Amino acid sequence: MAKRLAGKIAVVTGSGRGIGRAEALALAAEGAKVVVNDLGGASDGSGASHSPADEVVAEIKKLGSDAVANYDSVATPEGGENIIKTAIDKFGRLDILVNNAGILRDRMVFNMSEEEWDLVMKVHLYGHFHCTKPACVIFRQQKSGRIINTSSFAGLGNMGQANYSAAKEGIVGFTRTVARDMGKYGVTCNAIRPNAGTRLTLSPELKAAWEKQKASGSTAGFDSSASEMLEKATPEMIAPLIVYLATDEAANINGCTFFVGGGVIGIYTEPEIKAQIEKSGVWTLDELLDIMPKKITKRLVNPAPPKP
To answer: Which terminal residue of the chain, N or C, has fewer Cβ atoms less than 10 Å from its own Cβ?
Structure first.
């Protein structure tokens, strides 16, 4: 098999388990040397362990490539700096950054604490920045680099995940701007919205909620086909797209967001105005009450209507 990433150095955050692990192994299989970053904490971010990162490093070395473990948290600037510094100290350069580390603190918005909001923001949105900034200092100097960020379709709206959804959609905006900041230096920045069964997406709490809904006969908020697809979609099905976006052949792809899950890969359109009204001067409320339902909001449906 051709080693399309031979000589490349990659950092993958949160790569001790799940999607990150699959990405690190796939990059290594194509010849990349990998910094396997993982704090080794629980799905809610608590605790720490060296074992997850160490085990992936051992797997990569069995593939015939090289890897080094890093246990820093992406939630701090110092952690991000140390993760990138590990690549330079061990391998002398950096070519690919995959921002993947994440946690969950799910709660309905009216019950969510400041701590639950802040922790998820720190790991996801801040974590992307904390690693991307020092990586871009290097990429700018060497006039090359690939950044792949991890968003989620939860960013389009997912009940009980206001913190996670906000962070993940923030990552899409972050991706668009980093792509424009760094494109002139030969760097690309893209994002994925992955769909795969992991310890975050197939948590015991989620499975219990599914079973409870099935037992009650309720279908509100529950899509059995989607849940079955999630259980069948493995993290390994995500990794090939990440490897592709890391190649030299993907140099023209910049600022894009992709869906990937199972055997499906799709590219999202960018938001655009689909209908508008214009007048000379300022609209009055009476005018808007008359024209909005006719020109703008006629076909809109409330995605979460009040219960009868």
So the answer is: C
pTM for this predicted structure: 0.88
> Do residue 72 and residue 186 come from a single domain?
yes
Residue 291 resides in a domain: no
The predicted-structure confidence for 47-60, as pLDDT tens digits, reads as follows 889 999 999 999 99
126 catalytic? Reply is no
Name which of 161, 101, 153 is nearest 125 in CA terms. Answer: 101
132 shares its domain with 225: no
DSSP 3-state of 172: helix
Q: What is the pLDDT of residue 207?
A: 53
Full domain range(s) for residue 214: 202-232
- 186 vs 308, higher pLDDT: 186
Residue 202 has pLDDT above 60, yes or no: no
For the stretch 37-63, what's the b/e string if a residue is b when 16 or more beta carbons lie within 10 angstroms of its beta carbon? bbbbbebebeeeeeebbbbbbebbeee
**Active-site choice (126, 164, 185, 244):** 164
Does 227 lie in the same domain as 115?
A: no
Average pLDDT over residues 189-208: 73
What's the Cα-to-Cα distance from 292 to each of 7, 174, 193, 278, rounded to whole Å? 57, 32, 33, 11
For the chain, what is the mean pLDDT? 91
- Whether residues 167 and 87 share a domain: the answer is yes
